[in-house]
Specification:
The complex is a heterodimer of chains A (267) and B (243).
Chain A (H helix, E strand, L loop, with lengths): L1 H13 L4 H25 L12 H19 L6 H7 L2 H5 L5 H31 L9 H27 L8 H16 L11 H8 L8 H8 L4 H32 L6
Helix pairs in contact in A: 1-6, 2-3, 3-6, 3-7, 4-7, 7-8, 7-10, 7-11
Chain B lengths: L1 H34 L7 H21 L6 H6 L3 H6 L4 H7 L4 H20 L4 H32 L3 H12 L12 H8 L2 H12 L5 H28 L6
């Protein structure tokens, strides 16, 4: 446990090595929120309008919720795993008495803490500038379910990201390409990071709900906004858990297969 | 084997870019089906704004992809070799490596613009103004990329600067009329994303006068002049430190 605490501290300090990079990354997050915020602001320009089951307060809460949840769920250093596999740096870790998964999960946590800190400040500033109406969930059961769904989302995202990175065992040159396709495009859209998924036709929604992606952003926010029934929340949490088990099995299978293929090229 | 991996990476990137386009397109389509209009624009008009943005964005990425590879040149001193060659250094680092992935997406995009543009029934004058302002938009995009290069020499920071440019220009995915003041003015005059991508589409809808188009072109020309001056200034700060 102590060694992972050290990893956490070192990783946290490393984030400050490239300060300008980090600040620019945060600026980008804020800019992306502008488009979504003003888009929905324009859609809900008529007072009392209800579109796709959202009123103005709920949709703007969704937009701000995305900013915070992205910091918690999407902030991750695990993106570097494929690079380590293709450069042969993975060997360094295989020789050390550390669990490679725990090592990266710890690094992810340090990134999440830092990003969450910044996201909180940004949200406060944006809140003061834009003065959006905000929906505050007061039902303790829903708040508890929301917190549980976020925990599950963090683990789910870690597994998805790790699995995608392990592709580098087989195609070392295409690691970034796979990340671009699965994490930047597919996960971003299908998680509800760009728009709430319930504006799509029901058939699309049902299909998307079979995948793990909506459970990393969209589902937790739906729980917070109280847009789904208690039974559906339970089903969602169970599905998240099931996906976690499935992804964990896939991750271990690919890891074992990949290690046998690993040639430490470049070492 | 390497060629195979490169081809696979090419295909994955292409699929990713097409998917991103289709997903945002689908989002707009379903959104406007439900709301009927966005800031006073109907479905076809909103989609035309989106297509025009994509055209300027994709063409700029296709032509100026080398900008994304500029940082290592400055950091490792390889830029010295560019400067010593009998070729414009700006041209080399700006347009020295076109992106084939983006090239592949341009023809279908032009077809989509033609198709949706036709549904808006433009007059010949509106069409001319649209094309004129589209060229002006590309001129502004060029100015942005030159400025990013200059900034890269001075600060060694390229990756995030270019991505911030992309995020800012992405605000033009939708008509800038949706933004409130002062952001709207910033996007029109300070960072002229509105002139770059929104105005051409508005011209096709008959919402821009010839005089307005002419005034906008002045911003494009001024942008290029300022960007080239900034580039020349940045060159005087190049230390060639790593060579």
């Amino acid at each position: 446990m102590k060694k992972y605490l050290s990893v956490f501290k070192i990783s946290f300090q490393q984030e400050f090595v490239y300060r300008l990079n980090f600040i620019m990354w945060r600026v980008r997050n804020v800019l992306q929120i502008f488009l979504i915020f003003f888009l929905w602001n324009a859609v809900f320009s008529q007072p009392g309008a209800i579109v796709f089951g959202y009123d103005r307060a709920k949709i703007l809460t969704y937009v701000f919720g995305i900013l915070v949840l992205r910091a918690i769920v999407f902030s991750a250093r695990t993106v570097d795993v494929s690079g380590e596999i293709s450069s042969g740096d993975l060997t360094n870790y295989l020789l050390k008495p550390v669990s490679y998964f725990k090592y990266w999960f710890t690094r992810d946590l340090s990134s999440k803490v830092l990003n969450l800190g910044f996201a909180t400040v940004e949200t406060t500033i944006l809140f003061l500038i834009l003065k959006p109406v905000f929906f505050l969930q007061t039902n303790p059961t829903l708040v508890l379910a929301f917190v549980i769904s976020i925990f599950l989302a963090v683990f789910l995202y870690f597994h998805i990201l790790f699995v995608v990175n392990l592709v580098a065992f087989w195609t070392p040159e295409s690691g970034w390409a796979f990340q671009f396709l699965f994490m930047v495009i597919i996960a971003e859209f299908l998680s509800g990071g760009i728009f709430p998924l319930d504006i799509l036709p029901l058939a699309f929604q049902k299909a998307i709900y079979l995948l793990p992606f909506p459970y990393v952003l969209f589902f937790p926010l739906q729980v917070y906004l109280g847009k789904i029934a208690t039974s559906a929340i339970l089903v969602g949490l169970i599905t998240s858990g099931l996906w976690l088990v499935i992804l964990n099995l896939i991750l271990r299978y690919l890891w074992n297969k990949g290690l046998r293929r690993y040639e430490a090229v470049g070492r | 084997m390497n060629v195979l991996f490169q081809r696979m990476a090419f295909m994955i990137f292409l699929v990713g870019k097409v998917l991103r386009f289709l997903m945002f397109f689908g989002f707009l389509f379903f959104l406007l089906k439900g709301t009927k209009n966005l800031a006073g624009y109907n479905l076809n008009q909103t989609i035309f704004f989106f297509l025009t943005f994509n055209f300027v964005d994709v063409v700029a990425q296709f032509l100026f992809r080398e900008v994304y590879r500029f940082r290592p040149l400055v950091v490792n001193g390889g830029f010295d070799l560019v400067l010593t060659k009998p070729m414009s250094a700006l041209f080399r680092v700006l347009m020295g490596g076109a992106d084939v992935i983006d090239l592949a997406t341009i023809p279908p995009l032009i077809f989509a613009i033609y198709w949706v543009g036709n549904l808006l029934h433009p007059t010949p004058l509106q069409l001319v103004l649209f094309l004129f302002l589209l060229v002006n938009g590309l001129l502004i995009a060029t100015a942005f990329h030159i400025a990013v290069l200059g900034f890269g020499i001075i600060t060694l920071e390229i990756d995030h600067t270019i991505m911030i440019y992309r995020d800012l220009s992405s605000l033009g995915r939708l008509p800038i009329d949706i933004y409130k003041e002062p952001l709207k003015s910033v996007l029109t005059f300070l960072v002229p994303v509105g002139i770059m991508v929104t105005l051409p589409a508005k011209a096709l809808m008959g919402l821009v006068s010839p005089l307005g188009a002419l005034a906008s072109s002045l911003i494009g020309i001024l942008g290029i002049i300022l960007a080239v001056r900034f580039w020349k200034f940045a060159l005087t700060k190049y230390a060639s430190a790593s060579s």
